[in-house]
Amino acid sequence: MSDKPLTNTHIVMWRYYALLAILCLVVLTLMGRAVHLHIFEQSFLSHQGDVRSIRLERLDAHRGTISDRYGEPLAISAAVETIYANPTQVKLGDEEYAQLAAALGVNKRWLKRRLESNRDKQFVYLKRKAAPHEAQQALQLGFSGIYSRREYKRFYPAGEVASHIVGFSNIDEKGQEGIELAYDEWLTGREGKRRVLKNRAGQVIKDLGVVELAQSGNDISLSIDMRLQYLAYRELKAAVDIHRARAGSVVVLDIETGEVLAMVNQPSYNPNNRSNLNVSHLRNRAITDLFEPGSTMKLVTLASALESEKYALNNSVETSPGFLRLGGRSIRDHRDYGRLSLLEVIAKSSNVGTSKLALDLGPEALWDSFYALGLGQGTGIGFPGESIGQLPNPFNMQPVELAAMSYGYGLSTTALQLAQAYMVLGNGGLKPSLSLIKKESKESVERVLPESVSNELLKAMRATVEKGGTGTRAQVPLYSVGGKTGTVHTVGRDGYNAEEYKALFAGVAPINDPKIATVVVIDAPAGAEYYGGEVAAPIFSRVVDGAMRILSVEPDKFSQLMHVNKVESSLAGGRG
Questions:
Q1: What is the DSSP letter of 297?
Q2: Tens digit of pLDDT for each residue in 104-146?
Q3: What is the pLDDT of residues 164-213, one digit of tens each?
């Protein structure tokens, strides 16, 4: 058998069929792989595709609302838009930069620099929490890489009037001061999620629905009555301006419940505009600032004396010759009052008379009375930065220190603690817990003084504001009130400042059936008047007068006034 030589035609045909077989095999392999992927790995591939194109976006939660006791909003969150960019997608000319900057209300140079310097990033903020119309103007320009998303911005309708209580949150709605900080976790909601389909450019082309709903934060109803808050703020601000004082505070408490009805300070700040904020103005001075309470403590000393049952209001004490020498120091009255009843000791504000009571009672008995009223300890109000004050150690206390303590020197307190003490004195000796949150139900109340002692103290408070007392300017036309004045030297780095004072007044109203306890503190009045009875008492009078009307308290002087008018009319008729 002879072999025929392979021709060129045979070689070409062999190669053709070999290549065709290989191509068919490749096609069959690809088809088989496609069938395998389509049938057996479809779910896996679908998931991988979704991972590369479907995204979860955050849904911001609505922060809880803060309101006063009657529902008036003090802090609310409003829907706004945040404009952001993907710099890798942004391609703008100089004119387009100008258009975008004008729409956002920002500087063109700043905008260009921000985008150009972040070319390697896929996300930068252009404007946080802008007004919706600003976001709409920016997006309508149609520039690629510019987006917006819904957020919330905090607003404070009462502004500076309630700022020291409410506080504020930062741009991410995290509490920074006041109630916003103290109850941040309670107010903060839980973010939600939504699924969206995006293209390669990062643009949302389809909203696939909400995966998890955002949960709003919890609301808070404060104990504050904004009607009283506005009243107290107005009167305090006017007084600080008139007396050219450095600062001031007013606190109004509901005597029966312990709720804070008003708490204002000067200077204040506007939480809606903190661009030029003075950090020192952030302090809620009524809670954070300590001072010596001065003669306002004489009522506490009297309470200790009455509770000991060694004294009664009609007992007398000799104050002549108007001073008392203890440990090389002199304790002085304004003048020699001679022999005074305990009622007159308070009304005249006798340092000598109060000191003699304290020296007879002893340091431990006096300290117990101060402490029982809440001095030298936290109020439990839960406010950030609260100061607890200080009481001197009753052990190893020298006589001069004991005497000083009896009229309010050598210890420190806050305006809120002082108001708490007077709340107890006017509440039959009962001490409800203080609260900035509205109380929804009654609570058990601690008794710290006998009711009989409290009733006697109310008589002493009334005597202070009547003729011959130091607080006559605290009187209110249609209501009987009572309280105690105080004037103390301010304390500086080198000790007492002989030329600076704090003017104080603490009291309750109406005196026959107390509803509120009010404290006024004016720091460093610079005018001719600086005594508590001259500066703080008139503020007390105006605040209490307005508060009684707002709270619809029936005037207890009305019947007396009607009787006087009737007598005057009768006399006028007789003369005719």
A1: G
A2: 888 889 988 898 888 888 888 988 888 888 888 888 888 888 8
A3: 999 999 988 899 999 999 999 999 987 766 665 655 555 555 555 566 66
| Helix ranges, 160-284 (H) | 163-166, 178-182, 184-187, 226-242
Separation between Cα atoms, residue 406 and residue 367, nearest integer Å: 9
Long-range Cβ contacts of 88-93 (<8 Å, 24+ apart) = 88/119, 88/120, 88/121, 88/122, 88/145, 89/144, 89/145, 89/201, 89/202, 90/115, 90/143, 90/144, 90/145, 90/146, 91/144, 91/145, 92/143
The residue among 406, 399, 411, 292 whose CA lies nearest residue 358 is: 406
What pLDDT is recorded for position 212? 66
3-state DSSP assignment of residue 11: helix
* 347 contact partners, CB below 8 Å, separation of at least 6: 460, 463, 464, 466, 468, 469, 470
What are the φ/ψ torsions at residue 233 (nearest 5 degrees)?
Answer: -65, -45
pLDDT band of 573, cuts 50, 70, 90? very low
Cβ atoms 149, 57 nearer than 8 A:
yes
Using alpha carbons, select from 351, 325, 347 the residue that is nearest to residue 336.
351
- Torsion 560-565-571-573 (CA) sign: negative
Q: How far apart are CA 195 and CA 110, in angstroms?
A: 34
Contacts of 525 (CB under 8 A, 6+ apart): 243, 244, 245, 501, 503, 535
Angstrom CA distances, 434 to 152, 379, 428, stand at 33, 7, 16
Which pLDDT score is estimated for 108? Answer: 86
Whether the link from the prior residue into 510 is cis, omega within 30° of 0, is yes
> When comparing pLDDT for 396 and 30, which is higher?
396
User: The tokens of 88 are what?
Assistant: 């890798």
Q: What is the pTM (predicted TM-score) of this model?
A: 0.84
pLDDT value of residue 28: 82
Mean pLDDT of 396-413: 95
Structure tokens at 50: 């979704």
DSSP letter for 276, please: T
Q: How far apart are CA 416 and CA 253, in angstroms?
A: 9
Query: Tokens 């460093």 appear where?
Result: 524
Torsion sign over Cα 18, 22, 25, 27: negative
Provide the β-strand partners of residue 83: 127, 148
Q: What tokens appear for 43 in the block? A: 């779910």
369 is a catalytic site residue: no
- Give the orientation angle of helix 399-406 with respect to helix 351-361, to 10 degrees: 120
Q: In 3-state terms, what secondary structure has residue 200?
A: coil
Q: Which residue has the higher pLDDT, 149 or 164?
A: 164
Residue 559: which pLDDT band, with cuts at 50, 70 and 90? low
Q: Is the peptide bond before 267 cis (omega within 30 degrees of 0)?
A: yes
The catalytic position among 295, 349, 350, 412 is 295
Strands, DSSP E only, in 121-191?
A: 124-130, 146-155, 168-169, 175-177
| φ, ψ at 502 (rounded to 5°) | -110, 130
Structure tokens at 49: 């595709």
Q: What is the largest CA-CA distance in the chain?
A: 171
Give Cα separations from 422 to 252, 306, 461, 484, 531 (angstroms). Answer: 11, 16, 10, 10, 20
| Residue 442: per-residue pLDDT | 85
